[in-house]
Amino acid sequence: MTGRSRAARWRALGTDVDVIVEGGDLELATNAVERVLLDVDRTYSRFRPDSELSGLNNRTTATSVSPLLAWAIEAALRGARATDGLVDPTVGRAMRAIGYDEDFAVIGHRNSGPVLHLEPVPGWQAIDYQAVNRTVRLRPGIELDFGSTGKALAADLAVAAALAALPALGAGAGVLVSLGGDVATAGRAPEGGWRILAADSSATAPETEGEVIALSDGAIATSSTTVRRWTRDETTVHHIIDPRTGAPADSPWRTASVVAATCVDANIAATAAILLGDGAPEWLTARGLPGRLVAVDGRIERVAGWPSPAFAGSPA
User: What is the value of pTM for the model shown?
Assistant: First the structure.
């Protein structure tokens, strides 16, 4: 972190929130981020019975949704189209079947009953979404879950709000927002770029020695099968669902990190990479998306121009 950078960390949406401001007022930025995250929680948290998303998941009639929920649905549908349905928002019931029915802070410490019946998810085509009037109709039995796009969308919205809250001063300010390792940036980067530690877990301390990359703009997101894992009837499961089976993905990669223009795009691609398995390097390269893939045995494959690593601590 440079001499002009200021940072704050707290918990929200069940994860760590990090805000770093370069050449601006940290309090103004964090206040803006907090407002966005409160709106996100009220709007599309799957774990709040009073959220707008929970209400939508309990209806089969056409429902008018708020602009924020509409953005979340549009991001999820874009991810489904871009990945030929590999990143699919209709995995809500499959998540419940494997036991992910409460915040991970609760389920991560319990050994619950057996995995319920698993089957392919309904598929994103079962969502009748009309953008012109922001209405949604779900087929009976469908539950939406934005695990592959929702947090990333929140990071994109939060960093934009934080930068907008800062007064224009001199050469301008820059902001980085990280939500559980999904990182979005806006404005002017510090000299040498935003230094970001590549790790399996967002809980890894920033000062940990490891591979660090410098990001001048855009975003980076990481999907991993090593972090949100829990036990279900003595079987270890994780949160990345393969829509083709309704079961946790069986992948040669334990972690995928991707750099893209937005955090949503980065997270869509990182999740797809886990699900694509051996086809991930070719898929990322064809789309010009720099990626870092960590195999289950620890082998690392860097593709599509992933930045050359430096090995140091203090990523920001």
Answer: 0.89
